[in-house]
Amino acid sequence: MKTHADCASCLMKRVLFQARLADNGTEFAAVQAGVREYARLMSPDISSAEIATHVHSAAYAAMGVSDPYLDMKLEADRVAEKYVPDAQSFIDSSEDRFAAAVRVSIVGNIMDFGMGIAIDSPDEFGRMFQSLLDQGVGSDQTEELRRLVEGCETVLYAFDNCGEDQFDRLLIREIRAMGKRVVGVVRGAPILNDVSLDDALRIGMDRELDRIVSTGGFCVGFSEGLMKEDLKEEMGRAGVLIAKGMANYESLSDMEVPLPVAYLLRAKCLPVASSLDVPVGTNVVRVEYR
């Protein structure tokens, strides 16, 4: 997805939010570094994820903190875990376990902090959980996703936010129950509140997956320049890449990848919603072939 003018204010809100999480007096320096990098790169022809990666890299350097979201990620895991039994009950009581698990995984995508378009703390999740579950999927290609999963041996599953991954594990269990090999993709370095290898291991995600690979480094979503051989190998082997969240959509939708991609996300901002041709706030399952 290419950069929109709306992305500037969103990114700077995020930079300020994370600088305040760092709580070391670097708010001005972080925003200044982010603004300079955004001004240097801003173009309607560049991926929004690519620009965001550079902006956050500059802001993190100014803050001098490698993982400003760590405490919030721990809290997100704790809060989300409380609702896993309810989510599991929803799946167990459904006539279509796969579709129910897909819906549950999308509900978790609201755990996206600091942009003013989702929630600003994990504790806000509880009051929204049931209403999000009841909302369902507004733009729904779950049947196409099911067909792809059924027709392959390996599924790649790209995580997005901490806390959200507590619900992803329920969908992963359903896919593995179908006899499929599932390989998880995590961020190659801590960035935002996204799932890194340490985050995945902390909640035991390695026990849910057949293998874990990473995006290769510090990046919003995926970066072709950072991909290592293990990820490329799994992309060539898998029958579908399930990509959670907006960052994965923003990056992958501009890349050439050798397999179908199924985006599971909540369209939380106007640029992403417009790109997907849905209203803001829509839960989406969208399959793209390359």
UniProtKB/TrEMBL annotation:
Residues 3-284 form the Damage-control phosphatase ARMT1-like metal-binding domain. Gene3D superfamilies: Uncharacterised protein PF01937, DUF89, domain 1 (1.10.8.380), Uncharacterised protein PF01937, DUF89, domain 2 (1.10.285.20), Uncharacterised protein PF01937, DUF89, domain 3 (3.40.50.10880). Pfam families: ARMT1-like_dom (PF01937). It comes from the Archaea. Coiled coil: none annotated. This is Damage-control phosphatase ARMT1-like metal-binding domain-containing protein. It comes from Methanomethylophilus alvi (strain Mx1201). The lineage of its organism: Archaea, Methanobacteriati, Thermoplasmatota, Thermoplasmata, Methanomassiliicoccales.
